[in-house]
Here is the input.
Amino acid sequence: MQTTAQGGGMFFWLILLAFFFVFMIVLPARSQKKREQEMLAKVNALQKGDQVIIPGGIIGTVAGFKDNAIEVKVAESVKLTVLKTAIVGFVNQSAANEGGAK
Here is the structure.
């Protein structure tokens, strides 16, 4: 009878370990998806004049929109066309939106 009790105890710990691994995989995936949705909402809310950060730490101003891309003005006569997915951050987007509403 001891072997049955030990086997049952081992089965309990295996189930507990499986739940732990599932929890450790699912929880970060959900939070990552939430961050992606928030970023997509911010990118879709961009307006001309908002400042964005693109890869390489380049800060520019939104100058226009194309199908799946955004024109970013980085200097007086320099405009880069980048995909919406390439935007990695925003510089005072809330302040820029409030300033544009005045």
Observations:
- The longest strand covers residues 58-65.
